[in-house]
Amino acid sequence: MISAYTVAGVLRAESVALQRHGPTVLMYRAAFAVAQAALAGLSGHLIPGSRALLLVGGGNNGGDALVAGTILRRRGVAVTAFLANPKQVHEAALAQFLKAGGRVVVGMENTSVATLFGRADVIIDGLVGIGATPPLRPAAAALVELANATSAYKVAVDIPSGVHPDTGAAPGVSFAADVTVTFGGVKTGLLAQPGELVLAAVGMDVSAEAVDACSLTEIPGLLGDPGTRADKYSDGVVCVVAGSTTYPGAAILCVGAAVRLRPGMVRYAGPQAAEVVRHWPEAVATGTVSGAGRSQAWVVGPGMGTDQDALDRLTVVIDKPEPVLVDADGLTLVSRHPHLLVSRQLRGRTTVLTPHEGEFARLFPDLDLSDRLTATRTAALRSHAVVVLKGSATIISDGAHTFVNRTGCGWLASAGTGDVLSGVIGSLLATGAPPLTAAAAGVFLHGLAGERLHAAGLAGASQLWDHLR
Ligand SMILES: NC(=O)C1=CN([C@@H]2O[C@H](COP(=O)(O)OP(=O)(O)OC[C@H]3O[C@@H](n4cnc5c(N)ncnc54)[C@H](OP(=O)(O)O)[C@@H]3O)[C@@H](O)[C@H]2O)[C@@H](O)CC1
Ligand SMILES: Nc1ncnc2c1ncn2[C@@H]1O[C@H](COP(=O)(O)OP(=O)(O)O)[C@@H](O)[C@H]1O
Ligand SMILES: [K+]
């Protein structure tokens, strides 16, 4: 987990750094880091002769792009700067760029615009940085759209233009960065962005400005040695209520994650009891929730279907006093029968909801998903639950504290990985860990497992089990 900073915090640190080093030094350091990222993105190309396109706005962000272009030019890259507004441009940076042999293009009516974008190997987005508020104005938005349509390697300067630096909201078009090189400190809005993130300190000290130092130091405690006096119940029992004849795999994936992560005792209740035991002989399985025995946490929903039988099972689990994690079909049922959640709220019971964006939209149709941080926080406050909004940057919030996870990789975007995640979090909930800790740690471990799986040259949800610990 990484600490993040608001724009206000970064600006406070920046004013100290500006007094110490002066604007030219800071901009050069920022630009140097951007140029390095661009060169790394060009690694498959011969550097001299490759083409870079700069999208240059009127502020310091545009200045950074021009200085980065100057550095690339000196390395033999053919660099063209597209000025969004020729009347407003960082004059000193432009002068350096022209002196180094950079080319300048102005105006969309230029017939070679399509060619210019189409031939670029790397595009550097210096339209706006933290001095601007989205949405982008039409001229800048048009440039971003052209850039996004290309296959060039895309480098954002400080923040992808069009993304709100504090919230991550992108109310219009935003630059689809492969990498964002951000200065001084990671802006809170960047945590929820896909793409790689590079932090260039540039001489700013932001240490006094941290917003959320999201560290998962709890993990060793959660997964620690059970101890010599342990019995199979002492670490907490999780019961998984999942699967159906249509989706038997969900039950096996969810139980498997729990068995592999914390094997003390894992129960299963549902129609796939025989299949579950065939895969996981250590699981204690039964056909009905009422027959499941005592558990310290419940996971309900993966692949259970949305028919009357599933609703009946969900209703029994919802009534349990122990922490309940609701996922997948369980969430769809809750969106149709909202009173189920209200009954837990009224009794002050712990609930964890793990929607992907589609499920989230069903549950909270009025919350704007272009601002995922605020949407998750609001959903948590409203539902009195820990909400885990899954995606490339999963967000975890109880309304008061919010974590953003950056472990994981695109290979996790495959069917069944969500079922594994609910087994992981359910298993951690059974330890008695605070639900926000269990959820954040579970998401972190699940992401790490995805990375390890990929590094081992493997893929697929049922392989994640082996990489959880
Ligand atoms: N200070 C330092 O030492 C260092 C600062 N650094 C860099 O400075 C950046 C901040 O620079 P900044 O403050 O100049 O603002 P910036 O983000 O370029 O935006 C202003 C421009 O955007 C325009 N614009 C505004 N809204 C818009 C919209 N909706 N849609 C479209 N355009 C819009 C606005 O136009 P205007 O509104 O004035 O007409 C103006 O042209 C920071 O992110 C980092 O990259 C680094 O070099 C490290 C050292
Ligand atoms: N691009 C991505 N990068 C990292 N993690 C991802 C990405 N896409 C999806 N994930 C993760 O994969 C899991 C998918 O869960 P979900 O959508 O519920 O799938 P399923 O229901 O098929 O199991 C979530 O944990 C999500 O955060
Ligand atoms: K930018």
UniProtKB/TrEMBL annotation:
Catalytic activity: (6R)-NADPHX = (6S)-NADPHX; (6S)-NADPHX + ADP = AMP + phosphate + NADPH + H(+); (6R)-NADHX = (6S)-NADHX; (6S)-NADHX + ADP = AMP + phosphate + NADH + H(+)
Gene3D superfamilies: 3.40.1190.20, YjeF N-terminal domain (3.40.50.10260)
Cofactor(s), by name: K(+); Mg(2+)
Segments traversing the membrane: none
Pfam families listed in its UniProt record: Carb_kinase (PF01256), YjeF_N (PF03853)
Residues given in the record as AMP binding sites: K390, G391, S392, A393, T394, G418
The organism's place on the tree of life at top rank: Bacteria
EC number: 4.2.1.136, 5.1.99.6
Residue ranges occupied by any YjeF C-terminal domain in the UniProt entry: 215-469
Swiss-Prot/TrEMBL keywords: ATP-binding, Isomerase, Lyase, Metal-binding, Multifunctional enzyme, NAD, NADP, Nucleotide-binding, Potassium
Binding annotation for (6S)-NADPHX: 60-64, 129-135, 158, 250, 303, 356, 419
A GO BP annotation: nicotinamide nucleotide metabolic process
GO molecular function annotations of the record: ADP-dependent NAD(P)H-hydrate dehydratase activity; ATP binding; metal ion binding; NAD(P)HX epimerase activity
Statement: the UniProt record of this protein carries the keyword tRNA processing: no
Keyword Lyase: yes
Protein's recorded name: Bifunctional NAD(P)H-hydrate repair enzyme
Taxonomy of the source species: Bacteria, Bacillati, Actinomycetota, Actinomycetes, Nakamurellales
Gene: nnrD
